[in-house]
Amino acid sequence: MLEAGLPKTLLQLLKPRLPQMLATLRRFVTAESPSLEKAATDRCCRVIAEEWNKRGARVERIAQKHRGDLLRITPLPNKSGSSGQLLVLGHYDTVYSTGTLAKMPFRLEGGKAYGPGTFDMKAGIVQALFALQALQHAEMRLRKRLVFLWTSDEEIGSESSRKFFETEARRSDAVFVLEPSFGSRGLLKTARKGVGGAELIVHGRASHAGLAPQEGVNAIHELARQLAAIAGWNDFRRGVTVNAGIIEGGTRTNVIPERARALLDLRALRNSDMRSLERRLHALRPLQSGARLEVTGGFDRPPLERKMSASLYARAKSLAKQMNVSLGECTVGGGSDGNFTAALGIPTLDGLGAVGDGAHSSHEHILINTMPCRAALLAALLATI
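Predicted structure:
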């Protein structure tokens, strides 16, 4: 049974903290943290670590050789009343290179906070920080141990950090992902598509287009026919898409091209569809005599299926209702680290971060007044799961 009145109590604690939340957000955003610049991300890592240290948490900095360091944070003292763990997962790296602040400064305007990484997802880390502080002030005896893990390479595929958050996820009973929410209503992301990429190369035979066209095997023609067939695999209702985003081939117009290639974007909402799509790609055969196909790649991020989020979403919706907030859900096409944790069989709820818009753009921003409510929602989830 949910603790009566807890969400409202947490919200009342957090509303007066909004100025401090914004001041902390300013410090995080002005510490630029592009994924590919280790020195810069490490500086940001240090700024974030200092803020969590101030709030009475144990901060472990996990060194990375080529990427920014990771932060594993646990509250002190650990007032968990029973065994089990909850993982709060997010990233502090951004898509913006060092120097972006000069043309895209942190600013408050019209009820919004602007700046590189505000929405995706430094405001989420701030909300988590103040959620923990609210639990401490309320002297909550938590049911499970809490672990907060902030990574530095999510925007470039999580290659370096994946083994760390998957290890923590396997120890956990649930994972809460602080990626930004969707839309002005702050929808939670209860399903995400799996994401991948493939390369289709056609090998043909070169020949003179005027003197001996019959002796050639046109790789571009073969590729075009293959792509036309692949386009028929799209099933928007089921969330299956294949997009040919880059094509290359040929040398001169009077030469039958002997090679052509296409790079494909692959997405699917279900694991079964993901596997089916990969099988179909690797089963492709030439449509014209003399051509040869080469297919590489596949999915590198599995889907987050709704069944892995359903129970956590129901709990979040009930808690939000106690704060007089109507909480909705959505399915999105992009992936996050929550895809990986859900694929391990761990219940995962995504999109618990900031409310705003403009991720990865010059108008990236959050809605300021939503921060205390989102922090209260996370705190309530952590206290009642």
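Summary: The two ends are 10 Å apart (CA to CA).
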